[in-house]
């Protein structure tokens, strides 16, 4: 299993973090999807100096790209390899945002890249961002809900003035001088309030159940009393007739 995993990693494009598509190799020995390296070098046309996204070796003039037939064959074989069923994203699972075609279950979500990754793509993500670690959380399908759409930062501050979650940059501009606390502190406070409310409601329910039980006992006692009176009346009626 470890060997298969390594082989799959070796066939990943370091630009798109997906399996190589139409693999090409450049002079330094690294390989990329043809469309990925072409896009990278198109952005460097003005400088007339072209670099490898991995090792940063430079080339001039722009090298011609040659199709790597061996990698193409290996990729096709890997696509036909049956992967473990528990890697597939099922109902309720968070899907990997990088997987194309067959979607695999995401294990982590990156708050910086705003994407969720399966184990394979997460390993590649960690490799390429090893110098500056990104903020990661367990895979969630709610990334857009916890990220500030204006500043693309985590909503980790709660504005009590406007009663909404905001990011750190929001406190400098739109919410300057507002009453703010950390979202975690506000969540803890709300959870405490909810527990107190739950406790109060539970006590009320218990009191209602107690009152209901007392009412039932009173009704039953009243029935017994009426039955006794009825029996007594019938006995007195018989004595009178006699």
Automatic annotation (TrEMBL):
CDD domains: Bbox2_TRIM16-like. InterPro entries: E3_ubiq-ligase_TRIM/RNF, Znf_B-box, Znf_RING, Znf_RING/FYVE/PHD, Znf_RING_CS. The keyword Coiled coil applies. Residues 143-183 form the B box-type domain. Residues 191-232 form a coiled coil. One of its GO terms (molecular function) is zinc ion binding. The keyword Membrane does not apply. Keywords: Coiled coil, Metal-binding, Zinc, Zinc-finger. Residues 13-56 form the RING-type domain. SMART domains: BBOX, RING. This is E3 ubiquitin/ISG15 ligase TRIM25-like. The lineage of its organism: Eukaryota, Metazoa, Chordata, Craniata, Vertebrata.
């Amino acid at each position: 299993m470890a060997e298969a995993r390594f082989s799959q990693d070796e066939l990943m494009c370091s630009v798109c973090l997906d399996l190589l598509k139409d693999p090409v190799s450049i002079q330094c020995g690294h390989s990329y999807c043809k469309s990925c390296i072409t896009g990278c070098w198109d952005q460097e046309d003005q400088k007339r100096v072209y670099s490898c996204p991995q090792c940063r070796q430079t080339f001039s003039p722009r090298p011609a790209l040659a199709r790597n037939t061996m990698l193409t064959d290996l990729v096709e074989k890997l696509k036909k390899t049956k992967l473990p069923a528990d890697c597939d994203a099922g109902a309720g699972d968070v899907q990997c945002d990088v997987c194309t075609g067959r979607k695999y279950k995401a294990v982590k979500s990156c708050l910086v890249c705003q994407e969720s990754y399966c184990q394979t793509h997460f390993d590649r993500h960690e490799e390429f961002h090893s110098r500056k670690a990104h903020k990661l959380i367990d895979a969630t399908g709610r990334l857009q809900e916890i990220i500030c759409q204006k500043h693309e930062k985590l909503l980790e501050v709660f504005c009590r003035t406007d009663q909404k979650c905001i990011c750190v940059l929001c406190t400098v501009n739109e919410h300057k001088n507002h009453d703010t606390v950390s979202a975690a502190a506000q969540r803890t406070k709300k959870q405490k309030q909810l527990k107190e409310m739950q406790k109060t409601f539970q006590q009320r329910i218990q009191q209602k159940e107690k009152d209901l039980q007392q009412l039932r006992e009173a009704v039953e006692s009243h029935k017994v009393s009426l039955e006794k009176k009825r029996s007594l009346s019938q006995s007195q009626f018989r004595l009178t007739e006699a």
